[in-house]
TrEMBL record:
Organism: Paenibacillus artemisiicola
The family this protein is said to belong to: Belongs to the peroxiredoxin family. AhpC/Prx1 subfamily.
Name of this chain's protein: Peroxiredoxin
InterPro entries on file: AhpC/TSA, Peroxiredoxin, Peroxiredoxin_AhpC-typ, Peroxiredoxin_C, Thioredoxin-like_sf, Thioredoxin_domain
UniProt keyword annotation of Cytoplasm present: no
Amino acid sequence: MTMQPTVAYPFAKVGLPAPEFTLPSTKNLETLEENVSLSDYRGKWLVLFFWPYDFTFVCPTEIVGFSDAYEQFKSLDCEVLGASVDSVYTHRAWIETPVDKNGIGPVRFPIASDFTKETAHAYGILSEEGAAHRGLFIIDPEGILRYQVVTDMNVGRSVDETLRVLQALQSGGLCPVNWKPGDKTLG
């Protein structure tokens, strides 16, 4: 009996371990010397989301939206991590720039720098131009990728839908169309 070779997937795939990463971050905004790794989030749910570039138009609406909802994610034992291919220095400048001048102000979660673009590539969202598409990934406490959505550069994601999907995944049941927390599951 011949064993089938294990298939190596070139990109992140739902149901398999999420690609590992260690990236510089804004976790310590003063020094910018504290990295974030996927292993830091072991034992908790993680929403990892990418955007194309800092100092753009749609991106700040998403980041501020996720920051505003951060306590809701925390109450669900979930951390949030944002990332783009910009440097941590650009991230810091964006955070320190007032909102009325195209900045984002303080953010409740770290922002990672995928300056080498290796993580965006591993998650299958690196564009031909070298930017990250708007990829959002929900990773479970064991490090398994449970959900992913990727949108075009000009379409923002929904914080409410991300919260709904997270709660559906956490329910452990079969969730029908338009399921909301408190609704019955199918099994």
